[in-house]
Amino acid sequence: MDFASLHASNVRYALVLSLLSGLSFFQHAPFANAAVDADDALGLCQIETLPKDIRATLERRFYGWKVQDSSNLLPKARQKWAAIAPLACPGIAAGHYEDSRSVSYALLLVPVDRSANGYKFVVFSAPSGQSFYGFKMLDQGSINASSFFIHAVGVDRVFDSDLKKRFRPKGSDGILLAIADDRTSTQNVFVWAGQSYDHAQVDF
User: Fold this and answer.
1) What is the DSSP string of 127-184?
2) Which ranges constitute the DSSP H helices of 43-137?
3) CB neighbours of 62 closer than 8 A, spacing ≥ 6?
4) Closest residue by Cα to residue 82 from 121, 120, 19, 30
5) Which residues of the chain have pLDDT under 50?
6) What element of type H or E holds 4?
7) CB within 10 Å: which end of the chain, N or C, has fewer?
8) Are 201 and 188 in contact (CB under 8 A)?
9) What integer pLDDT is reported at residue 39 of this predicted model?
10) Is the dihedral of CA 164, 97, 76, 21 positive or negative?
11) pLDDT at 85 (0 to 100)
């Protein structure tokens, strides 16, 4: 990216951030709508932001699926997402899930066909210094996922000492899987325990 393009991108980011900051003092619904605008303006859910190897696997193994984006969220889920992570994609969460030296990518995938139901919750990780990403399926189902979104969270932020002793997370981050609709709101954080991912319900 040349300097002019980078400058334009930074200006656009600053304007969107200013808009969100101003609207955060008002009701949740306008704030959630502003967050959707930020999602679109910044291209936060474009798979081009992911490493090339992950993109190739998505095309090969997950044809017919796409990353969850804010336009697919129900109003209640959109409000919750906007309050937690308005400048993040609700279907992509990058973090140090398995160790502190390498970044892993969690993806919440939904059908490209909006009339179809279902979801796949997947984590892509690579050994430190490697460009090949393997994936682990953390959860999947056939229900409508319009109330689901994901976000990276620091383990220290959501796990108390008892949960740390119980799960012994290896990374500094966990993956928040939030479900919010008109009836309920639940948050589960998935952490890498050394051999597999485990999860606990938390208040967030």
Assistant:
1) -TT----EEEEEEEESS--TTEEEEEEEHHHH--HHHHHHH--SSSEEEEEEEE-SS-
2) 52-61, 75-84
3) 109, 120, 122
4) 30
5) 1-29, 41
6) helix 3-23
7) N
8) yes
9) 59
10) positive
11) 83
Which strands form 185-192's sheet, in the order they lie side by side?
Answer: 148-154, 173-180, 185-192, 197-201
Tracing tokens 């606990």 back to the chain, one arrives at 200
Q: How many angstroms separate the CA atoms of 87 and 50, rounded? A: 16
Distances in Å between the alpha carbon of 74 and those of 7, 17, 108, 114, 181? Answer: 34, 23, 15, 13, 7
Specify the amino acid at residue 128.
S
Nearest Cα to Cα of residue 72 among 95, 49, 40: 40
> Is residue 136 within 8 Å of 197, Cβ to Cβ?
yes
pLDDT of amino acid 144? 96
Rg (CA), the chain: 17
